[in-house]
Amino acid sequence: MERLLDWTFVVGHMNYWLFIVLMMTGLFIVVARGNLVKKIIGLNIFQAAVFMLYISIGKVTGGTAPIYPVDMQGHMQVDPSIIYSNPLPHVLILTAIVVGIATTSLALALTIRIREAYDTIEEDDILKIERHMAAEDNKEHGAAMGGRA
Amino acid sequence: MVETIINIILFTMLVLTALAIVRIDSLFAAVMLSGVFSLLSALLFVTLDAVDVAFTEAAVGAGISTVLMLMTIALTSRTQKKATRSGMVPFVVVAVTGGALFYGTLDMPNLGDPNAPAQLHVAPEYLAGSIKDIDVPNVVTSVLASYRGYDTLGETAVVFTAGIGVLLLLSGLGRRRRKDEEGDA
Q1: Which residue in A has a C-alpha nearest to residue B132's C-alpha?
Q2: Is residue B48 part of a domain?
């Protein structure tokens, strides 16, 4: 309990906790909202929070962006006294952002197709139509099977 | 200390934007707010030293994804139905998940700790080796295109697959729509 009240601990972990708040807001949109476009926006927020978490892990206090300065002749100036942040999380998240837009575009294309087939993009209405279709199906095939289905 | 304050201000704005997206019923406004959200997160990436990530996020998150979503709502609908279900069950789910994640962060090293495990593994090798192995000033570029080039190849494969998927899903959309209209008339 004493450890939780430690001020440096709180400031050092503040970022992570704020990411969790953002991430959970995104999750709430995905779970609680029925509109498919809204769900995709929620997923994007969730995803952005994960990106921020990763980038925070790569941050080094007093560090700068991992780019070596170049002089007029094009030679890199390597100064060992300068601290650079960790470039690896940056690379991973660059990849993740591009993959994220690919999955988002696929999800949006699916939404357009769902709208074409069901004429709605509200989850409740889609489920209602599906249940109705299943009931119709049962009626049709049930009669053929002697009314038992 | 200044960085911490900037972080907290940016976060407050991000959380407010996210809450506005939860509340709002107009999808157009929600899409625009998600663009704002991406731009704010790009600013946050700059304060966390990730400039490459910041401009990718600004171009992809605030640019392309907003355009794609606008196209989608133009083809589907512009408002969402009012929520009929109670928000209680989702709220409990979210609170429990958030609590578990919070518990998980307690073991993490402080933000910016130079002795954190993430800083001591391959990162120093990349930073030192990139000068003589690759000879590119931007270490992020040299890791992306050389040290972890296969990751980028895999990423390209994913984007290619997604592109084919989108093409297959949307091909013939206009044609079918015209046929329907002729059928109605």
Answers
A1: A76
A2: yes
Burial of A53 (0-12, 13-18, 19+ CB in 10 A): buried
Of A25, A104, A105, Cβ closest to residue B15: A25
Confirm or reject contact between B45 and chain A (CB < 8 A). Answer: yes
Please give the CATH number for the structural domain made up of A3-59+84-118.
1.10.287
Probe site for chain A from B25, B37, B76 (most A CB atoms < 10 A):
B76
* pLDDT tens, residue by residue, B9-64: 998 899 999 999 998 889 999 999 999 999 999 999 998 888 999 999 999 988 99
- Classify residue B22: in a domain, yes or no: yes
- Parse chain A into domains and list their residue ranges: 3-59+84-118
Residues B46 and B53: their CA atoms lie apart, in Å, by: 8
Q: What interface predicted TM-score (ipTM) does this complex get?
A: 0.89
In this structure, of A69-73, A91-95, B153-157, the range with the lowest mean pLDDT score is A69-73
Q: How far apart are CA B8 and CA A11, in angstroms?
A: 10
Interchain CB distance below 8 Å, A65 and B49 = yes
